[in-house]
C-alpha cells in the first residue's frame, strides 16, 4: 500500500484522483474549493515560496539560468537536460508574477 504525504492512499483500481475529468488537488476534494479569486496553486497549503527567478518543479526549485535543480532545503539534486528545462519552463509554477491581462494597442 502506498500513501502520499498528504494522506491520499493510492488505489490501483478505481483510481479517481487527478484524472482527465477532475483536476482538483486532494486537499480540495477533502476540504472543498476556495472562493473565486483565491485559487489553490498547489496541494500544499500555503504553497511554498519560490525563490525569485526560479520554478517549483515538484521535488525542488529550478534555476533556469544555472539549469540546476536543488531540493527544498537548497541542496543540489541534478543538472536539468534540455527536455527537463523545457518541461519545467512550460509547466511549473514560477517565483514571480507576470502581467498577462489586457494591453492597450498603440493606435
From TrEMBL:
GO terms for cellular component: motile cilium. Keywords: Cell projection, Cilium, Flagellum. It is found in: Cell projection, Cilium, Flagellum. This is MORN repeat-containing protein 5.
Amino acid at each position: 500500500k502506498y500513501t502520499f504525504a498528504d494522506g491520499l492512499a493510492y488505489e490501483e483500481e478505481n483510481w479517481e484522483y487527478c484524472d482527465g475529468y477532475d483536476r482538483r488537488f486532494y486537499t480540495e476534494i477533502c476540504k472543498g474549493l476556495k472562493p473565486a479569486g483565491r485559487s489553490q496553486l498547489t496541494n500544499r497549503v500555503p504553497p511554498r515560496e519560490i525563490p525569485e527567478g526560479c520554478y517549483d518543479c515538484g521535488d525542488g526549485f529550478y534555476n533556469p539560468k544555472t539549469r540546476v535543480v536543488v531540493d527544498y532545503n537548497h541542496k543540489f539534486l541534478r543538472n536539468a537536460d534540455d527536455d527537463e528545462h523545457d518541461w519545467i519552463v512550460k509547466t511549473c509554477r514560477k517565483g514571480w508574477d507576470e502581467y498577462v491581462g489586457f494591453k492597450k494597442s498603440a493606435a
